[in-house]
Design brief:
This protein is α/β, with parallel strands linked by helices. It contains twelve helices and eleven strands. The longest helix has 19 residues. The N and C termini lie far apart (about 60 Å).
Length: about 300
């Protein structure tokens, strides 16, 4: 069976929410398997720029003269639009979920299900890997990212166990990281056998490492600011989030128009924001979750850039 690179969550709801304008200019900052990009083109977009920092995504290239692949992190959205001479866009889509391809490709090291090198780089040319973080960060630094990015209440204990284990030998593989935390996990036929009650905790740990390796929240902040400035009045931004950290950031930004999430009001108490909210956290239907269980944690937020009014 051929590998499924990624199944977009709430595909139709997202494309409908973008309100594609014929001949408009759009950006898909998370190309991945190309599902969203193809749907944007099918809806009549005049020009589409699709970003992906992972060279593997090029396997899903679209044969369409309207389409341009940008092999780059989406944090550089503003720079690339300047490069292409684009000073305004009609819509932007971001699916912040990790592609099936990354979780299901053992050698990439994104999942504790497989015995693999501790890598987790979205961009394979980047220098820092998850192994570098595990072996060079102090106990305090590890505890910080486990708490902030994994929301692990026992982050300090996990960090302490890791630091103790790495004194004997560097932790270079997924199974070595898991085994540094508890002797209860075993390796069978190349896969890590994890008790059900521990799977959520390990998923949070691997999420924290992935976010740190790829500076995901930093990149998201930069992209949001660039998108706000690039969107034309009436243009829309649609973002799919999958965990509370990124969703909180996106929610507050679309509500306030700034990274701090601070609400500004005019003399009359009206909220001053560049956006009108269209979708405030829509979730996938039960039918979709049954077909695609990974859509269960997805939330769709859509906002429209307000028309500039002159006083």
């Amino acid at each position: 069976m051929a590998e499924v690179y990624h199944i977009p969550a709430m595909l139709r709801e997202t494309i409908d929410g973008l309100n594609i304008k014929p001949e408009g200019t759009y950006v898909d900052v998370t190309f991945g398997g190309g599902g969203h990009s193809r749907a944007i083109l099918e809806a009549g977009a005049g020009r589409l720029f699709s970003f992906d920092q992972d060279a593997d995504a090029l396997k899903n290239a679209i044969d369409d003269s309207r389409w341009e692949f940008v092999h780059s992190n989406f944090r550089y959205l503003r720079n690339w639009m300047d490069f292409y001479g684009v000073d305004g866009i009609d819509g932007l889509l971001a699916d912040l979920g990790v592609s099936f391809h990354h979780f299901d490709c053992p050698e990439r090291g994104f999942s504790f299900r497989f015995s693999a090198p501790l890598d987790m780089r979205m961009n394979q040319t980047a220098k820092r890997t998850a192994a570098d973080i595990i072996n060079t960060y102090s106990e305090e630094e590890l505890a910080r990212i486990f708490w902030l990015y994994g929301e692990l209440k026992n982050g300090r204990q996990i960090a302490r166990n890791i630091c103790k284990a790495r004194l004997n030998a560097p932790i270079a593989r997924t199974e070595e990281l898991v085994q540094s935390l508890t002797p209860l996990f075993a390796i069978r036929d190349g896969e890590i056998d994890v008790p059900p009650q521990k799977k959520k905790e390990l998923a949070q740990l691997f999420q924290a490492l992935r976010i740190e390796v790829n500076d995901e929240l930093g990149a998201l902040r930069e992209m949001l600011v660039a998108a706000r400035d690039l969107l034309k009045p009436g243009g829309r931004i649609a973002i799919l989030t999958y965990h509370s950290l990124e969703d909180r950031l996106v929610k507050n930004f679309l509500r306030s128009g700034n990274l701090e999430g601070e609400i500004e009001k005019d003399f009359y108490g009206n909220i001053l924001t560049p956006f009108t909210l269209i979708e405030k956290g829509r979730e996938a239907s039960e039918e979709e979750v049954e077909r695609n269980p990974r859509a269960r944690s997805a939330k769709l937020r859509i906002a429209e850039k307000r028309e500039i009014t002159k006083s």
